[in-house]
């Protein structure tokens, strides 16, 4: 079983626990099984649960408890009720807090998806959420690409190695390997923490790792890694084997407690040793930019980063410079 399978199974159990805790009616439960991933189902439950409670506080539905909600409660709601809820989230309140435009857009999309389900199953006559103007809640993309320079990378690795005074050699070898693997492959942080021993192939002519890609749970894909990353991984694996002392653990990257490290562990480590300047995702930006700068081939960057479309690679992962643009013209 892959890390993602375990993660999704945990989310499925949490969702089932919430269904039982709130005695969620069957017609509402049915909606969640139209969603693809267990993680998305759980996150969406929290969004809708908050909305349901708001409806009951405002007395916009007859039900006093989630278990009492009926299709008629939703069929009676109008577009202005949904708009009022979103506006309350935008302005902020003690009960609801305040949300960014991007979060509001995500909540609106979840509500619209729920109403579409209700409409398809004849629980309501129409999807009132779709009547809200799209321009009112539009995603705001901040197309900021941060690329680490050679000096940035040297400083980051130096800070990690200096921490060896306070930490053991295992932690230093692990953290160095994480940084060099991120910079030598471009994998996502979730792909990195999900790596198992069987996913590492360092003895091939072109060393690679197998990762479970974003949006998938079972299927793995090979990702090439740099020689620098390969050597860092070799050093780390020696330290890992000595540290685990035969303990049963398939995960490549383990914590001080000899358990698989978490996304937060890696994010905190990068933030600490870069002094807050960089994130793991910036390293993915760096890989995309460097691949393109080297051969001016967007397809190569797309394939290494495992994007479905080269447009995604071009728009969000490559920091174009005047020098890069000039280099594409000079030999024409």
Concise structural overview:
The chain has 332 residues and is mainly alpha-helical. Helices cover 56% and strands 4% of the residues. Strand 1 and strand 2 (208-212) form a beta hairpin.
Secondary structure topology:
Blueprint: H1 3-22, H2 26-32, H3 38-57, H4 71-75, H5 79-91, H6 101-120, H7 150-162, H8 169-183, H9 189-193, E1 200-201, E2 208-212, E3 220-224, H10 227-244, H11 263-273, H12 280-295, H13 298-305, H14 310-316, H15 322-329
Antiparallel strand pairs: 1-2, 2-3
Helix pairs in contact: 1-3, 8-10, 12-13, 13-14
Low-confidence stretches: none
Secondary-structure element order, as H and E?
Answer: HHHHHHHHHEEEHHHHHH
Name the strands of the widest sheet in spatial order.
1-2-3
Q: Structural class given helices, strands, pairing?
A: mainly alpha
Tell me the span between the first and last alpha carbons. Answer: 52 Å
Number of strands: 3
| Sheet of most strands | 3 strands, antiparallel
Rg measurement, Å: 24 Å
Domain count, please report it.
2
- Mean of residue pLDDT values: 88
* Approximate helicity band: 55-70%
Shape: elongated
Number of helices: 15
